[in-house]
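Appendix B, record 7
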Amino acid sequence: MLGVISLFSCIKGNKIEVSSNPVDVEVPSKKPSVNIFIENSGSMDGYMCDGSQLKDAVYDYVSELNRYTDTTRLYYVNSKIIMYNDNLTSYIKDLNPVSFRKAGGNTANTDLGTIIASVLETVNDTTISIFVSDCILDLPEKDAQKFLTNCEIRIKDEVINAQKRVPDLGVEILELSSDFNGKYFYPNGSVEILKDVQRPYYIWIFGNKNYLAKLNAAIPFSQLAKYDLRGIVAFTNQSNVPFDIYNNALTSKTIIPAHGDYHIIIQADFSTTLQPDGIVQDKRNYSFNNSNLIVDGIYPITDSKSKYSHYIKFTIPKGTNIAQDCLTFNSPKMPSWVSESNDDTGANIHENTNKTTGIKYLIQGVADAYKNEKVSTTFNFNIKRK
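Structure tokens (predicted):
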């Protein structure tokens, strides 16, 4: 970010010229390998009913991924990782309680911290790992809050360890909803049968952000909307984002003032920030060095041939004196759906069928690992009086 803004250029109704320096961006040349992990603990049995959206969503998404990946490996995961040695169609067909138990491992009690650590260990610069789970934390009867806090710290530690191996590690977490017919396990050990309800589940995606960006462009998460996609949150380090800057008509770098104001457009590819459209288009996430400059709006580019994902329209108001500036896209706050989906006790499932015990602590653990990443990307540009 530019630390000092030069103030020698007076803009008093004359034309100006805008420019920017080229941005170096790493473009993956190889196809990534992908690992798919579905938790097969007892609490997941209810999602394996006939017509389950979970099975359809995973089948649809992973089959699309196969177009853009080198190798796809399939696993179950509980107390251990269990390889599945058949094809994707059989994998989805075998998503049922009987196959889960036959696969092995401890399906009665699982430690999500250990599972996520195991999944993260399979990630490298060219390997993406996807984890599907209800993400319900198995709370103890006593000291539940201490347990939740410890889980948050554990996740933070595991993500930090993975960042050491994969410096450009990205984490994307999707909340979806599915039909559920099965057992719900209370913290006190009692069990209740739930019938014909909708329950949330989560898809966690770990990998080098440059590969994640490439896959997200090819298979937008919007394609999962038909499977009741409810929320997305993403984390990664600061990105170098390719962009260009033009006049409001995208025809020239020379800007003619309108009533003394200068209207300018940045075209940028936000893909490596991993942030969903709702975050990218939120003006509150942007700031200029010079607070007089105004972000008018951020809009998606619908032209599939464009190398950019969004327009940023902004205004330099009449009388503003600048020679250069920097627009910062700040790392966003935690989206509200995370806390709204959280249940701290797991004690009253009938009032909380749309919530998940402890989910905000798991996701906050990831956020804590990225707490020093205050900036998602920056756009430095120059203004020259003509």
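Remarks on this record: The longest strand covers residues 191-208. The mean pLDDT is 92.
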